[in-house]
Amino acid sequence: MQIILYNKFMNQKLYELALNVHEKIEEHSAVLLLVEYEKAMCSDGTVQALIDEYDCLQSEINNMLESSTIDHPQMKDKCRVLYKLKYVLDSEPLVKRYNKQYNLVNKMYKKITDELLRTVGLKRDNKCLLKEE
Fold it and tell me: Closest by alpha carbon to 89, among 118, 48, 133?
């Protein structure tokens, strides 16, 4: 009975700590800036039109893949158009700004995750060595 109460207490405490970390991360200036950039990017007509066109073309390609191969000439043409469209989309200033901020936030998340896993002993910097036979 005492072990069950201890586990329940520890689970509750762990949940509270995780919730606190989550709230602190969501309030971080880098994350708030990312949210702001995302809203600006999604509210821009040009960017939204490019995203819609990209999604539509990607869906067409996926549907075509169900009945033909990637080597089909029409498929290759659509993939070329998709590639060019992605380049145009990624060249938009609002998208560039968002992607740069996204990468910063992603690095922050990775650093936090690595530190948490290292702290609780779940992440180790072990390397497998090849055995000589």
Answer: 48
- DSSP alpha helices (H): ranges in 27-92? 29-43, 45-65, 73-91
Q: 62-119 pLDDT, tens per residue? A: 999 999 888 889 999 999 999 999 999 999 999 999 999 999 999 999 998 888 878 7
How far apart (Å, rounded) are the C-alpha atoms in residues 82 and 78?
Answer: 6
- 26: pLDDT strictly greater than 80: yes
The dihedral region occupied by 67, where left means phi > 0, alpha psi between -120 and 50, and beta the remainder, is alpha
Contacts of 46 (CB under 8 A, 6+ apart): 92
The per-residue pLDDT for 10 is 65
Q: What ranges do the domains of the chain cover?
A: 9-103
- pTM (2 decimals)? 0.74
